[in-house]
Amino acid sequence: MKHTDVWQPYAPTIEEPWTLARVAHLHRRAGFGATWSELQRDLRDGPGPSIDRFLHPGDPDPDLEARSRSLRDNAESDLRCLQAWWLHRMLFGSQPLREKLTLFWHDHFATSVRKVQSLRSMAGQNDLLRRNALNRAGDLLREIGSDPAMLIWLDGGQSRIEHPNENYAREFLELFTLGVGNYTERDVREAARAFTGWKPDPSGAPAFRFEPGRFDADEKTFFGSVGRFDAGDIVRLTLDRPEAARFLCRKLYRFFISETAPATEESIESLAAAMRDCDYSIEQVVATILLSKLFFSPIAIRQRFLCPTEWTIGMLRALELAPRQLRMLALAETCERQGQSLFQPPSVDGWAWGPAWLGSAAILERTNFAARILWGSAERALPEFDPTPWVQAKGASAEELRSTLFQLTLQDDVSEDLRRQLETEPADANGWRRSLHLLFSSAAAQMG
Amino acid sequence: MDCTRRTILRAGVGSTLWYALRGVATASQAGLQASGRVDPSGRVFVLLQLTGGNDGLNTLIPYRHPVYRAARPKLAIPPDRVLRLDDEFGLHPSLQPLMALLDQGRLGIVQGVGLPDVNRSHFHSLRIWHTARLDSDERTPGWLARVLEASDSFQRRRVAALYVSDTSLPQTFTGGTHQVPSLDRLEDFRLLPDVPPGERPSQAARLLQASQSAGTADGASPALARDRLASAYDVGRRFEALVTAPNAVPYPEDRPLGARLRLVSQCIRSGLDAMVYSTELDGFDTHFNQNTTHPFLLGHLAAALGAFYQELSASGDADRVLTLVYSEFGRRIEENGSAGTDHGTAGPVLLCGPVKPGVSGAMPDLDHLEDGDPRTTIDFRRVYATVLQRWLSQESSIVLGERFEPLPLFS
Questions:
Q1: For chain B, how big is the Rg over CA atoms in Å?
Q2: Does A249 map to a domain?
Q3: Does A124 share its domain with A273?
Q4: Minimal Cα–Cα distance from A363 to chain B, Å?
Q5: E strand or H helix that includes residue B399
Q6: B196, closest residue in chain A (CA to CA)
Q7: What is the C-alpha separation between A285 and A277, in angstroms, rounded?
């Protein structure tokens, strides 16, 4: 893949050295945060191997997969269990970038169990997104068009030749590929005709089969082309539009670079050109982003508002809580109370992201959950966190330990006032709990 | 339809019952004033969004119109089932609880309200409704955010506005300097409930100190994040203690709006100084099998609004609370092949409270459809202008950027 100036690769220099702040930033964006030892390892190894571990993580860890399978067993009858199953993968999984992009696509193709009413279909869609998370966007779009959860969610499974249902066609163009303003009402109607053909299969779990008799095989006009188009043709013709690559790149930019300042036209144009050159390979585009100088610049670092799963899992990874110290169901609950109920995005536009995560009830839940983890909660069967052994492994003197905590949680980006406030805390279990609580509840810790 | 109701509707004059209730309200208000509540006569505005695009044609129904009946072989409501308002229009049968509000002179319906230009995208339409700007993007301040910023009387309040829903704060309230708290349930607003009681007050104090100290500024966190946190920790600490009014009537529980309006009612009756509340009911995007969802949504809406005003009139607050109910668009007149309706254009908005009762505005002409849809007859910004000028006493052109003629919605 070619790199224009905007996306030239990062290499450490005197002015832009490989620092803990950059290591932690990589882990927050490409994954869900890091432990102290992961941060130390990557600081030592440098950017090449650190980024490569995200891009080429190797095969999934068999132990993790076994535990994940056992959590999945209950997941098809209870939403909380399904959420817990996914959060467990984010927290302990060995392929964090794939999980991160699965979350990106879940938000992009935002499908909610509220309407789908089948956890099996929701889990199936999640598998589809994970499997295709780094593939070509065209593959993903073709597969999602015949996904049972999506056929229920946007009514494609009920569409008929006479009066085709426009729901999927409209969102396909508006939210999945081009963005509002880049298509006409006629394109919506013609695409809706091409997306017909599905029939609900009444046997057991939600399933649909394609019946040629229900497909509108007549000629359609879509973006000026005329033909007997089917769903695959619509995907192809849509991705031929230059707006499609721009639209997806803008969204990836907001996810990986910045939510606080808009992307320059040049950065989007150049990334979109690269995306078209590699036939919409998500893996290659994401690699370009993660390897870039821009990604490791102040334009990107801590310029996103952490979403609830990122903030929650980031905190738990920093505290190195073992599975037995946690209840995954309590994690699923807090993410929902913070405003991100997995498998139930608020609408087909996904979550609002950015400062929208910081609603007052959500902020209170964050600080309350941090307290629940640190002091324990009888109601939720969470044990009290004993910071002593964890802290003692990180330094000798109280001063040294405090400095490590500042490095671990905020890479030392701690305001003078908060620093002074925390210096008065005693170096005992409760003092560390209070300090950690204030650090995770600080404004800087909401940014990633 | 009986003569009395028709007279009310056409003349826009309240019934005897309406005046009687107003009399009761005034008397009990005086009593409450004496009990020392905060500004018991202060006006309150409640904004209620029906998310997804409510089917206006099956809400205020042109039940005799041949175009309506022909376009909806499965979904047209038969004339004998509508709650007739006159010889042309009737309400959906699920809206029965609204008929009581109408009788009390507490319900106005404005027909044909929509965006000046057709926009069938949920998100783009909502953005325009939320910002009252046709050229808005995601950074444009919301129309109520601009109201909060423009008025000193809002800025002096402890909690000037409140958003009640489990979804994120809508653009209506963002982009201004004022942080609007959001919650779905009262119990969401507790600070550190799990911290051991001996530790709780001191840790809460530390949290406030850390969030409010002037030097909290650090390079990484934008001012917005700091302001949001400081406001949440501060409001969260004292909110539950402020909302003390017990509930007096049952609210419907089959969908979430009942509980949300119950909370708004509690806040109002507790004398919270918020002047603006906003909430929503989702689920109106009825592309498929509309008859299995839409009647229940309307039924819930009507029962929730009915309970809300019943409770507010019992406490003497009903005449200081104006509720505006809107949706991002109506739906196509022609039903689709899956017994649903696709995105359309204009629809009716409802106004509850001390309004001129009955139907007003102009019904879109169903004989002259544009692209298969009725045309908007009233720019939604005229409704906003009316609320701003006549209810919130704000110069509407400052907020809306241009002058819109208010509608005669108040007596």
A1: 22
A2: yes
A3: yes
A4: 7
A5: helix B396-400
A6: A375
A7: 10
Same domain, yes or no, for A391 and A244?
no
Q: Are residues A375 and A292 in the same domain?
A: no
- Kindly state whether residue A76 falls inside one of the protein's structural domains: no
Which segment of A424-433, B17-26, B82-91, B102-111 scores lowest on mean pLDDT?
B17-26
Q: Are residues A292 and A312 in the same domain?
A: no
Residue A359 lies in a domain: yes
- Number of inter-chain CB pairs under 8 A, A vs B: 205
Domain-ending residue, one of A243, A275, A303: A303
Contact A415 B218 (CB under 8 A): yes
The domain total for chain A is 2
Residue of A162, A356, A372 lying closest to B168 (CB–CB)? A356
Among A364, A425, A436, which would you mutate to test the B interface (most chain B Cβ atoms within 10 Å of its Cβ)?
A364
CB-based contact B199 A161, cutoff 8 Å:
no
Element (H, E) at B110: strand B107-114
Q: Domain span at residue A278?
A: 99-303
ipTM of the prediction greater than 0.85, yes or no: yes
Each residue's pLDDT tens digit, B140-188: 999 999 998 887 766 667 688 999 998 889 999 988 877 888 899 888 8
Domains in chain B: boundaries: 3-195+248-400
* pLDDT confidence tier of residue B31, bands split at 50, 70 and 90: very low
Separation in Å, CA of A215 to nearest CA in chain B: 13
Residue A224 inside a domain? The answer is yes
**A149 lies in the same domain as A246:** yes
Token pair belonging to B335: 């039903």
pTM beyond 0.90: no
- Distance (Å, whole) CA B323 – CA B319: 11
| Alpha-helix runs per DSSP H in B176-253 | 200-212, 223-242
The CATH class of the B3-195+248-400 domain is alpha beta
Could you say which of A303, A321, A338 is where a domain stops? Answer: A303
